[in-house]
Structures are given as structure tokens and as C-alpha cells.
Specification:
By secondary structure, this protein is of the alpha+beta class. The chain has one domain: Hotdog Thioesterase (Thiol Ester Dehydrase, Chain A, Roll), CATH 3.10.129.10. The protein is 25% helix and 35% strand. It is built from 4 helices and 7 strands, in the order βααββββββαα. Strands 1, 2, 3, 4, 5, 6 and 7 form a 7-stranded antiparallel beta sheet that branches. The two termini are 18 Å apart. 23% of the residues are buried. It comes from Shouchella lonarensis. GO terms for molecular function: fatty acyl-CoA hydrolase activity.
Amino acid sequence: MFILPRTVEIVIQPQYADTDMMGVVYHANYLKYFELGRTAFIEAAGYSYVQMEEKGFYAPVYDARVTYKSPLRYGDKATLSTWLSNNDGIKTTYAYELTNENGARCVTGCTTHIIVKKDSFKPVAFKKAFPDWFHLYEEWKM
């Protein structure tokens, strides 16, 4: 049986192009970092977006929330922690916390996703489209 880790961590090192004229990471780029964390989390579970798309589905963002705590700047190294906060069979919510190398919390947030058919964009229950993946998340969720 596969055991999913509670939290997946990746290192984020902002690029110069990620920052605004104040040298601070531009607010929308945190969503890009969240996607990197979510992808790493899904891969740690043994799945991928490529597999999902090959089976005829997408997982668009249904809702996104970001709370800014402390600026992250070009040259900083940060750790992004990603975990599953909800998995109800229809919507899956991933939570995120980005901390800088001094341990200061820079950003927290979450993204909620639904599964849709590629050809019609009609919603499909996650637990029906990917029952093994859904059950792995259910066994593990916080």
C-alpha cells in the first residue's frame, strides 16, 4: 500500500522576472508557486496531470486564496509546504505555506479544484473519474 506524506515540501527560488519594481515577488506569482507545490504533491501520490489529461480530464482551479504575510524577494530561498485540506469527492483543496530561509511565513493560501471532461468542460466527480486516487487521498487527508 502506498503511503502519501502528510506534507510535500519544495524549494522556491524567485527569479528576477518574478519580482516587481520594488524587488518583491509580484503577488500573482504565488499562484504559480502553488501550482509547483501542487504538482509535486500529486507526483508524490504517484499521479500526474499528464495521466489525467491522457484519460480525458482537466482539473481547473475553482477557487484560489492567498494571504500575504511577509515579502519574498529576488535572491531569497523559500520552502513551500503543500498538503491536502479537503477532498469531498467533488472538490479537492490543497493548502500552502511559503516560508523564507529565516523561517518567516511569507504567504499562506489554498486552491480548490474540480475535475472536468476535456471535450465538454462538464464537471465530473473526482471519486468517479479517479477512484484509486480519490481513495488514496481519503486515507490520508488531514
